[in-house]
Specification:
With 654 residues, this protein is mainly α. It has 30 helices and 5 strands.
Length: 654
């Protein structure tokens, strides 16, 4: 109950009480006057008492009538009491009534179990108590870095804010089509990630990707996932409906046979089938270069996912987690990564940064798509320098200090906040150079920064480990990813001069370190970080998330530097590099397949008895493939018929 409503309830009794207090004060004055006349008249006290008792009822009745007449005057506040004494008495009564009002208000607050102030609401929201989750101080600190402002997820609003309405109209914005959207079943509720357009196909039923919250009773794997979580988030999983799985079988057969036309036909017949939309979007990108249409397909996939979000799942509060092991859930990770790329391509850097936060919040510890590798870049491009500083100093769920990109971005963010060299930013830059020296030659070359060649050939800036063939070390991949994205940030004259100054200061510390080129006179923590970086990153063991990030980062030159087992594995655009602990309902039903001594974890891996190898599958007759699909339907229990999960009005049988 709001304070205004409580005031309204309490207002009438308070006025009545104030009037009674004023009436009692008037009685006292009248009694005093009566006593004075009695003294003048010579009557004794007993006579006065008897007279007072006899007239008491008449006086009270008269005072009640006078109070009734005074009440509207008191309420309106139009008149004041005569005399200084009466004014003070009225103020005193008013002060007393306010104290009593506050006491009553506090009592009502306790009865209704509502917070006593907005500050308490904020504290409970920060601790997650409003969602039934109590967070530790560390969890609150990290969660605050993942919270998203929904208004910054709309790219068209950002375009309008930056360039005006004319630019939005030229870019083909969605415009005013609310009624048209509702007629197509697309405008039922306001969404955060996707914004449907009137040109989209109609949606007559649920897309078939529904979300549910995970519980320990779901199985030992899920219980282990929940018990090992240190983020305090709420874990969810996406499930495919029976109708969706029916269409999925047709889609998988088209993917395995590399039939792009069939994939396009499936996306046309079933316009909200998420995997078909993601696969077709990548085909358009790689073949025709139609990035606009490819981005629209990804946004349609996000729209399909949002239709099935659980009521307790939120992309903005920083607490929604998604189980990446399940193939049904992995599509949302990929859709967010692709959407982030398209937003950056359009120049909507703030939108890309917010989507980046959403992607990281789904699994902030494992970070299956390497969202941390792009978060600093998008924050810098959107001029969120203070956010970069806060994230680097406060994030504890993973080691940001071990990423070269974040070390240089942190120093650059400080420089942009200072707007001058020689301050804390220079110290941070020197530390970044000493810990990650191999960034300097690559960055200066890419950004066209003039540096003495003697400096670039200094042994301290050379790779510690000789690269074997075309493979790259973990450190080399991280450096190349950072430089490819962020080199443009260092091309301005003032930033280039600042980088040159920091390099000279770093060289002084290196030169004073002794005869060994790798000895430096730096703080102990800098030396310790340098040693830790060399032991962990100067290796050919590439984490799975880094390899997956490279595959989807649209940097073809870096794909050749991935480990051999990743390069030779079959990968599909709608599910690149599934995790080693993959939970795939389709693979469990149809079995696995050995191809070039590598296990195919992707959907569509068939048992050896079905086909000897992939070439035999590609050369198979359509009747053979359709027969295999029919057998898969029987295994899945979906029966015959290909109903559209996005256009059929029938509900799921299960």
């Amino acid at each position: 109950m709001s304070s205004r409503a409580v005031r309204r309830l309490m207002k009438e009794p308070l006025i009545e009480k104030q009037a009674k207090q004023i009436g009692s004060e008037e009685r006292e004055e009248k009694e005093q006057a009566a006593n004075l006349f009695d003294l003048l008249g010579g009557n004794d006290a007993s006579d006065h008492d008897s007279d007072q008792d006899s007239s008491k009822g008449a006086i009270e009745e008269k005072e009640e009538n006078s109070i009734t007449k005074q009440e509207p005057v008191k309420k309106a506040g139009a008149k004041k009491k005569k005399g200084k004494k009466k004014g003070k008495q009225a103020a005193k009564a008013e002060d007393m009534s306010m104290k009593e009002f506050e006491a009553h208000l506090k009592e009502l607050d306790e009865q209704l179990s509502t917070p006593n102030s907005a500050k308490e609401d904020d504290k409970k929201a920060g601790r997650g108590e409003a969602l039934g989750v109590v967070l530790t101080e560390e969890q609150q600190q990290n969660r605050a870095l993942l919270m998203v402002d929904a208004k910054h997820l709309d790219s068209e609003s950002e375009i309008k804010r930056l360039f005006g309405s004319a630019a939005l109209k030229e870019a083909g914005g969605r415009g005013n089509g609310r009624r048209a959207l509702q007629q197509r079943g697309l405008g039922s509720r306001r969404l955060a990630l996707s914004h449907p357009k009137p040109t989209w196909p109609p949606m007559m039923a649920s897309p078939g990707v529904d979300m549910r919250q995970l519980a320990a009773e779901d199985g030992p794997d899920t219980k282990q996932l929940l018990d090992s979580d240190k983020t305090g988030g709420q874990w969810f999983a996406i499930e495919h409906s029976a109708r969706f799985r029916t269409v999925q079988l047709e889609f998988l057969s088209a993917v395995i046979t590399n039939d792009a036309d069939r994939i396009a036909a499936i996306a046309y017949q079933h316009p909200y089938h998420v995997d078909a939309l993601l696969q077709l979007s990548e085909i358009l990108k790689q073949t025709g270069g139609d990035f606009g249409e490819a981005g629209t397909l990804v946004e349609r996939a996000l729209y399909s996912f949002e239709q099935g979000f659980a009521s307790r799942f939120s992309i903005t509060n920083g607490l929604g987690r998604l189980d990446f092991r399940r193939i049904e859930s992995r599509g949302l990770f990929l859709a967010l990564f692709r959407h982030m790329q398209f937003m950056a391509r359009r120049g909507c850097w703030r939108t890309a940064s917010e989507v980046n936060k959403v992607l990281l919040s789904l699994d902030p510890v494992q970070d299956p798509y390497g969202a941390l590798l792009t978060l600093d870049f998008h924050a810098m491009k959107s001029r969120q320098y203070d956010y970069v500083r806060q994230f680097y100093d406060s994030w504890t769920w993973s080691s940001v200090s071990m990423l070269p990109g974040w070390a240089y971005s942190r120093a650059l963010a400080e420089f942009m906040l200072e707007k001058k060299s020689g301050g804390k930013s220079t110290d941070l830059l020197v530390e970044a150079i000493l810990v990650f020296p191999t960034v300097i030659p690559v960055l200066c070359t890419k950004a066209n920064i003039d540096i003495d060649p003697v400096v670039l050939t200094h042994p301290y800036f050379e790779e510690r480990q000789i690269t074997a063939e075309s493979a790259m070390t973990h450190m080399q991949l991280l450096v190349q990813l950072f430089v490819e994205r962020s080199s443009a940030l260092f091309r301005t004259p003032e930033v280039a001069r600042w980088l040159q100054e920091g390099l000279l200061l770093a060289l002084e510390q290196i030169a004073l370190g002794g005869t060994c080129a790798r000895d430096i006179t730096a703080a102990p923590q800098v030396v310790e970080r340098r040693q830790q970086v060399e032991s962990q990153l100067c290796t050919y063991v590439i984490p799975e998330r880094i390899s997956r990030h490279v595959l989807v980062a649209d940097m073809d030159a870096l794909k050749a530097g991935l480990p051999e087992q990743v390069r030779s594995a079959t990968s599909y655009a709608f599910d690149p590099l599934p995790p080693s602990n993959d939970i795939n309902i389709y693979a469990e039903l149809v079995g696995g397949m050995q191809l070039n001594d590598n296990l195919m974890n992707m959907p569509g891996g068939f048992a050896p008895e079905d086909f000897a190898d992939l070439d035999a599958l590609n050369d198979a007759e359509p009747e053979v493939v359709m027969g295999l699909i029919e057998r898969m339907r029987q295994l899945l229990g979906t029966g015959g018929g290909l109903e559209d999960p996005g256009t059929s009005s029938d509900e799921d049988a299960q």
